Amino acid sequence: MSFDVRRLATTQGRIAPVNARFAPAFCFVLLTASCILASFTFACATPFAAFAVVAAAMLPLPSALLVVGAAWIVNQAIGFGALGYPHDTNTLLWGLAIGLAALTATVCAKAILRAWPRIVAIALAAAVLAAYASYEVVLLAFTPALGGAGAFTATIVIRLGLLNLFWLIGLIAVCAVFRRAAMLWWRQPEFRA
After folding, report:
1. 69 CB-side CA count, 13 A
2. Which of 17, 74, 77, 107 stands the most exposed, by the fewest C-beta atoms within 10 Å?
3. What does residue 141 show for φ and ψ, rounded to 5 degrees?
4. For residues 66 and 72, what is the distance between their CA atoms, to the nearest angstrom?
5. In which domain, by residue range, is 147 found?
């Protein structure tokens, strides 16, 4: 059986592999686990744009914002608690800027996915592009006050954009595998006379 991104979509263009009533919990667990992995692996390069697209594709906007906000809190807790981020005003403000950028990315992703609900592959690609662009623009807007403009070179921005794209592909693959496993798990044995 080949992978088909169109089969991940429901009529609303969602990629949730579970019933809609369980989608917020599934998305929360998926993004929290992913955020833990990304935070310890990449520290400051957590792929919030990819997380934003997944949440926006699975959930209504208010729920998506809550889930992405929860992932941001996990990221900040790991950074300040386990990775030893400095406890100074500049670092705290950058943390808030990252949170605002992640929420902005979620809103942008949701707008793109609403505009193209039936063209799933193109909508997801456009959503990650818009989410990442908005994420970077929000962060760039904070550089005059907080510094760090040197982190916005073309090489770094492209590398982080590709990281977000690969994370999105991986998260969609996890959803596809989970959906397939759930279908096999819940399939009733056929009655044979």
Report:
1. 10
2. 77
3. -65, -25
4. 10
5. 5-186
Q: Answer yes or no: are the C-beta atoms of 51 and 71 closer than 8 Å.
A: yes
159: Cβ contacts below 8 Å, ≥ 6 apart:
none
Classify residue 80 as exposed, middle or buried by CB count within 10 Å of its CB (0-12, 13-18, 19+): middle
Structural domains of the chain, count: 1
**Do 77 and 118 form a contact (C-beta atoms < 8 A)?**
no
28: in domain = yes
Please indicate, yes or no, if residue 29 is contained in any of the structural domains. yes
Residue by residue, pLDDT tens for the chain (193 residues) are 343 444 444 433 457 777 788 888 999 999 999 988 887 777 667 899 999 999 999 999 999 999 999 999 999 999 888 888 888 999 899 999 999 999 999 999 999 999 987 778 899 999 999 999 999 999 999 999 999 998 899 999 999 999 999 999 999 999 988 888 877 776 645 444 4
Tokens 């929860």 belong to 70
Nearest-angstrom CA–CA distance, 190 and 143:
62
Q: What is the pTM of this model?
A: 0.85
In a domain, 192, yes or no: no
**Spatial distance between the Cα atoms of 60 and 44, rounded to a whole number of angstroms:** 27
Residue 191 lies in a domain: no
